[in-house]
């Protein structure tokens, strides 16, 4: 930390702005971590002293308050432990998040738009910034697909557990007979990578298409071929961007997204070899749900990987996702450790 503080005071640091910003983020991360440890340690010491004082004076109220403080401290420690376990090469990076409606037309497209709102709300609650890179609207309602960029500390590390198929059961607002419908949508998360990570992609290995952007944006965005779609021929990976009116800017963003996707594919391949986890995109089908959101005939959100449940679906759809993410991350890490132990 002292070394970083000295570097921060060096006037030549900002000769390389990108490197300087990276160092300042690392300095801030370490500073926050140290302050958190000091806060937790001080809170524990104070609570122990209060309990001792309460027992000495026979004051049950003081003892109860101190015990409540320790219980709250444990909850905070659990969250800090999850953050400490986010030590992957790109866990701290910004992330792309894609949503695709499943079969079922308007029902699934409406569900996809609900998921887009849910993740946007989650990001806002964590003071993260969300940029919409592309949205393909549904014919009647909802969206066929969307890609967003989530910017914030540990954005990828937390959201990576959300990749998979999400299932919704509800009384359809689009069914005049008020029947119960089941809808599916898939979510795919992959990290933003910086220039320090090299991913070589030849233009000969891709197909680049331009098309007219859809959705809001005014007359200009709808009448020029500014949107860009890049298909990686070997893997079949497709990325697209229509966030800007400039085709040049959309092309640059799409290339960055493709490199990120290819890098994420390599991360998953390595992870599969070590942890024996089924994390390939080709394995995400309608039979591979990770979470069910039931609004009728009862109210329940259940993660099918960890068993975590929440009986307040509206809160979850408003972005209350931390308990699901933390449980999935803990299971992912625990599974990897157990697998390594088995091998050794």
UniProtKB/TrEMBL annotation:
One of its GO terms (molecular function) is translation release factor activity, codon specific. Peptide chain release factor 2 directs the termination of translation in response to the peptide chain termination codons UGA and UAA. The gene is prfB. Methylated by PrmC. Methylation increases the termination efficiency of RF2. It is found in: Cytoplasm. It comes from Bartonella choladocola. PROSITE patterns: RF_PROK_I. Keywords: Cytoplasm, Methylation, Protein biosynthesis. SMART domains: PCRF. HAMAP family: Rel_fac_2. Belongs to the prokaryotic/mitochondrial release factor family. This is Peptide chain release factor 2. It comes from the Bacteria. GO terms for cellular component: cytoplasm. The modification N5-methylglutamine is found at residue 219. Residues 212-228 form the Prokaryotic-type class I peptide chain release factors domain. Gene3D superfamilies: 3.30.160.20, 3.30.70.1660, Release factor.
């Amino acid at each position: 930390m002292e070394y970083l503080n000295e570097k921060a005071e060096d006037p030549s640091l900002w000769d390389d702005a990108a490197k300087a910003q990276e160092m300042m983020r690392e300095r801030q991360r370490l500073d926050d971590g140290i302050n958190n440890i000091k806060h937790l340690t001080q809170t524990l010491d104070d609570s122990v002293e209060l309990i001792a004082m309460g027992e000495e004076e026979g004051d049950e109220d003081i003892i109860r308050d101190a015990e409540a403080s320790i219980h709250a401290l444990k909850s905070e420690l659990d969250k800090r432990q999850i953050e400490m376990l986010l030590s992957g090469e790109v866990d701290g990076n910004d992330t792309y998040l894609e949503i695709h409606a499943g079969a079922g037309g308007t029902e699934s497209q409406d569900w996809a738009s609900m998921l887009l709102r849910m993740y946007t709300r989650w990001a806002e609650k964590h003071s993260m910034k969300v940029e919409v890179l592309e949205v393909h609207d549904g014919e009647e309602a909802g969206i066929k697909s969307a890609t967003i960029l989530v910017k914030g500390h540990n954005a990828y590390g937390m959201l990576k557990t959300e990749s998979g198929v999400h299932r919704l059961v509800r009384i359809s607002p689009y069914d005049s007979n008020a029947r119960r419908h089941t809808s599916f949508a898939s979510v795919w998360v992959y990290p933003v990578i910086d220039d320090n990570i090299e991913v070589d992609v030849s233009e000969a290995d891709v197909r680049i298409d331009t098309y007219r952007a859809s959705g809001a944006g005014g007359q200009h965005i709808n009448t020029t071929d500014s949107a860009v779609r890049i298909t990686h021929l070997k893997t079949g990976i497709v990325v697209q961007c229509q966030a800007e009116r400039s085709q040049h800017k959309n092309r640059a963003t799409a290339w960055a997204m493709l490199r990120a996707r290819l890098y994420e594919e390599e991360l998953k391949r390595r992870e599969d070899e070590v942890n024996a986890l089924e994390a390939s995109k080709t394995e995400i089908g309608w039979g591979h749900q990770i979470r069910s959101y039931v609004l009728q005939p009862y109210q329940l959100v259940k993660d099918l990987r960890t068993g975590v449940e929440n009986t307040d679906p509206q809160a979850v759809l408003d972005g209350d996702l931390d308990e699901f993410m933390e449980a999935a991350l803990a299971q992912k890490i625990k599974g990897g450790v157990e697998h390594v132990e088995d091998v050794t």
